[in-house]
Please model this.
Amino acid sequence: MRASLFALFAWLIGSLIPVYGDGAACEPITIFAAASTTDVLVRIAAEYEKDTACSVSTVFAGSGTLARQIEAGAPADLFLSANADWVNWIQNAGLVRRNNKIDLLTNQLVFIVSARDADARLNIQQAESVRRYLGDGKLAIGDPNTVPAGRYAQTALRHFSLGGLEDGQIVRASSVRSALTWVARGEARAAIVYRTDAAIDNEVRIAGLIPSIEGVDIIYPLALVGRTPNSAARGFYEYLQSYEAAAMFADDGFSRVSAR
Model:
């Protein structure tokens, strides 16, 4: 009788733990994700592993670099991109089904400078003041060819009459994190990065916000990779859309397009 009661109690406790996927022997999960999501996604993956005993591997880089790796056959189960174009690109290659993607997160661009430069204020709508602040120094952005933040930054610079800076004064990094590091080391005078990245390094500070430009939305889509994704990958895909994950994303400054 006691053994039966213990078994019933264990079953009741187990039923209260959320399970994503089929709950059976869980296949390893690999998610390729934009470098700007590194810190929060590592925490989310760890939480998911603790709750489900499913192993989650994370690979971070510029979204364009990751998309090309996926197209070349890299073993990704999910792709969290900082730009819809790269998800569309692998979808056009037949690697993502239309109903296996969702717009997950939003972000904002900011100017960052060295934390030692406490008085700097940069307003992209006042082009000459930005030029004066930079002087002969460099402005770091992500490479527009592979880094969505770099593409957004390039569009903003041109929109606000700062496109001329591109002749030698702009340095292009392989990821947003690299651009941030150049400012922290004093190798660039300023950088345009995501607001979420600016919070990770005490050696830099936000000097100004980049306003939204009509028709240019900073959206992070999430996609299941492959024509027949396994149930373990689908489980993590659902978890990343949950309120539990939304709270962790919010702690790092991301906004959710929707949560459920």
